[in-house]
Amino acid sequence: MDPEVSLLLKCPPGGLPKEQIRAELSPAHDRRPLPGGDKAIAAVWESRLQTQPWLFDAPKFRLHSATLVSTGSPGPQLLLRLGLTSYRDFLGTNWASSAASLRQQGAANWGDKQAYLADPLGVGAVLATTDDFLVFLRRSQQVAEAPGLVDVPGGHPEPQALCPGDSPLHKDLPGELVVHELFSSVLQEICDEVNLPLLTLSQPLLLGIARNETSAGRASAEFYVQCSMTSEQVRKYYMSGGPEAHESTGIIFMETQVRDGKVLLRKGAVVQTCRGLVIHVCL
Q1: What pLDDT, in 10s, does the model give residues 246-268?
Q2: Helix, strand, or coil here: 105?
Q3: Of 57, 185, 193, 208, which residue has the fewest beta carbons closer than 10 angstroms?
Q4: CA–CA separation, 86 vs 84, rounded Å?
């Protein structure tokens, strides 16, 4: 495993549908206040706005932990323990110069190196075409996180999609609706970033959760989504532009093959995305 990525959870082969996912929201799953107070977060945010005035703050779901549990029904169930955080707190903790120190203090003070970090839960899509290519995007220099790097389509599930307003409460976010938003958001990100019609996309299957160590262990739920179009058709849709076309500068296709039920890149290729997903080379 690459040192920049750690695998938090691997789902059973084939992935998990949303019917096998459960979410539990609680203030107990929020990040801890910083030892010296949260003024440092505000300072980082103001500094960012000076150079990137287009940034905006918004609530996000915070991943506290994820556990596969056995149930009486066929197959395991995944329990996601979630809190609430914000994009501002993400830039002020996970992406701050003090992130490594905060992880050390979290481990020492709470037995959890992520305790002081925002850790907003991201989503990413392993998007496959009918002619056996996977879709990647080259991120724009205008984005706050990992500009210029290669990534899969993705983003964040949004608490505001379920509860409008800048300060949603945990009690106003039922777990079943949060799971629905988690799965819906990855489809919406594909539609917005790649400009594909929703009806061309399959229902997502959750493959696992990875931590991106370049952003201090921020977690992303990675999904498999099948598109009913060829790579050339996808390219044409992408080139015509979508609602979030400004977030990427190019589309990249990598040929795949299936072996023992696993999707693998063609021999000689390996991709690590900035969201933390690693697709391993076929040797």
Answers
A1: 888 899 999 986 555 455 555 44
A2: helix
A3: 57
A4: 7
